[in-house]
């Protein structure tokens, strides 16, 4: 009688280590897509850039000519909820004389505006 009970307890407590609570997807920052970034060109004013990309996440008071757009998405993994998939992108826009001078950061890894359709 003792052996089946011990086997049941061992199986039960081992299975509990794989059960985790539900974890939500946490999305922060500005989602900048390929299409919205394609509308931004050097030489544009701050107003034109803001209308194309939205308000930047960071506007440093000490560097008024620098805008930072940051996006982070932290979601549960596909196969195991205790493994997290993290997606981060950073884009920095540098202005000189209130005109966009250069674009830095993860411009090549931006997601498309619409996800690909499944067939």
Features:
single chain, alpha+beta, 119 residues, 3 helices, 24% helix, 5-stranded antiparallel β-sheet, 5 strands, Beta-lactamase Inhibitory Protein, Chain:B, domain 1, rod-shaped
Task: Walk me through the structure.
- By secondary structure, the protein is of the alpha+beta class.
- The chain has a single domain (2-105), classed as Beta-lactamase Inhibitory Protein, Chain:B, domain 1, CATH 3.30.1450.
- Helices cover 24% and strands 31% of the residues.
- The chain has helices at 2-16, 34-38, 46-53; strands spanning 26-29, 58-59, 66-76, 84-96, 99-105.
- Strands 1, 2, 3, 4 and 5 form a five-stranded antiparallel beta sheet that branches.
- Strand 3 (66-76) and strand 4 (84-96) form a beta hairpin.
- The longest helix is centred in the first third of the chain and has 15 residues, at 2-16.
- The model has no long low-confidence stretch (mean pLDDT 78).
